[in-house]
Amino acid sequence: MKYYVIRVGHQPGIYTNRSEAKSYIDGYPGAKYKSFPTLESAQQAYEHGFLGDHGKYTPDHLRLLMGEDFDVSIATDAACPSNPGPIEYRGVSMRDNKEIFSIGPLSGGSTNIAEYLGIIHGLAWMMNHPEYTVLYSDSKIAINRVETKSFRTQIQEDDDNTELRNLIRRAQEWLRNNPTRNQTITLKKRPTKLWGQIPADFGRK
Q1: What is the residue-wise DSSP string for 33-52?
Q2: Least C-beta-crowded within 10 Å: which of 70, 77, 158, 160?
Q3: Alpha-carbon torsion 34, 38, 39, 42, what sign?
Q4: Domain 67-189: assigned CATH number
């Protein structure tokens, strides 16, 4: 069964009959409506709004979407305005939306490098915080490179990127000596289209 939420229409509310719901939005300028798989998620959307209303889901929305992962996960993300350019990355606790680490800016990198470093930093951080067991990233490329331990960088050596190159070497050494998935830590791709921007996003898009 689907639940149809109408927030703006002839008669806002939550409906289980598609035809009935459609009759309340037909011909209504700027109608806002959406279907949900559960009554609980529909009620949250009706009370707090859809993702498009405010750009990010509320914590209550995310708790419903993520289930048990919500309280035990962190998210990492990165920013780089050009390629090559200065990189930044950070990690955020999902359950309280608090920043747990932040690195940069460091000269001479790329978005892929920053995403890769962010994941490794997050995994290392979680080793010391066993209450967290899931890491989310929105970069499929970076996740694959971490899991296969196949990352190769082609950045040119110069005085400006010495700090970044040293950080990459330390990250690769950590990765060689530690598993990326084990019985206590799971690395996952965040479904951005469904859940909105990752909480660690720098908001510069």
Answers
A1: EEEESSHHHHHHHHHH--HH
A2: 158
A3: negative
A4: 3.30.420.10
DSSP state of 157: P
Per-residue pLDDT tens digits for 50-89: 765 444 566 666 776 677 888 999 999 999 998 889 999 9
Q: Which two tokens stand for residue 108?
A: 């001479």
Q: How far apart are CA 205 and CA 81, in angstroms?
A: 10
DSSP 11: S
Nearest to 137 by CA among 190, 199, 193, 87: 190
Pairing of strands 186-189, 134-137: parallel
Locate the domains of the chain by residue range.
3-50, 67-189
Assigned fold of 3-50:
Ribonuclease HI; Chain A (3.40.970)
Burial annotation 26-40 (CB, 10 A radius, 16+ → b, else e): eeeeeebbeebeeee
Alpha-carbon 145 to chain mean position: 18
What distance in Å separates the CA atoms of residue 46 and residue 28, rounded to the nearest whole number?
Answer: 18
For residue 78, give the 3-state DSSP assignment.
Answer: strand
